[in-house]
Amino acid sequence: MSNRTDRGGLSRRGFLKGAGVAAATTALLDRSVEALAQENKESRSVVGPGAVAITLKVNGQHKDFQIEPSATLAEVLRVHADMTGTKIVCDRGSCSACTVWIDGKTVCSCMTLAMDARGREIKTIEGLAQGEHLHPVQEQFIEHDAMQCGFCTPGMIMSCANLLERNKQPTLDDVKQACSGNLCRCGTYPRVFEATLAAAKQMKGGNGNA
User: Fold this and answer.
1) Phi, psi angle pair for 124, to nearest 5°
2) What residues does each domain of the chain span?
3) Which CATH homologous superfamily contains domain 52-127?
4) Which residues neighbour 135 within 8 Å (Cβ) at sequence distance 6 or greater?
5) Which pTM value belongs to this model?
């Protein structure tokens, strides 16, 4: 039987060669995927479903916990560490009441697995003050009565204080942007803005402790 076809067509030999190359390529890819999966499996330890031991660095101190791998950082802080300053309100990352700092950046702790916070610097509202001396943002929140029910207050303070860590001379728009994700059902935003700007002036004048 001839291996040739009409001009422009595909010969039997060409078809078989092409099919062989495709099959070999697929086999190589399959082996590569299997090898990668095996490598990932060997390099990542499997934890759970029961409680596991972890260590977190919270406000400069190492704390040991026995937690389920699915536990959020907010849960661990409130339930296991008894640090109830961090509030859980929406529990889905939309209100920012649970805001803490991780490596100097604000995060919603209700959306962060505690397991993912290992080896990182965690700061909560309890660690913002220096001993008996409140952070300037905390002082000015009191001075300007920038709180009502208090559920949003810790997260709001953490967001505003973080802004002043990054920007010593914020504008009103900077403050609005910094706490744009923090929801206040009582509507104390104007006083929050005033308090944060006043704290910036206090820190600039050398009276702050941040």
Assistant:
1) -115, 175
2) 52-127, 136-204
3) Beta-grasp domain (3.10.20.30)
4) 128, 129, 157, 161, 199, 208, 209, 210
5) 0.77
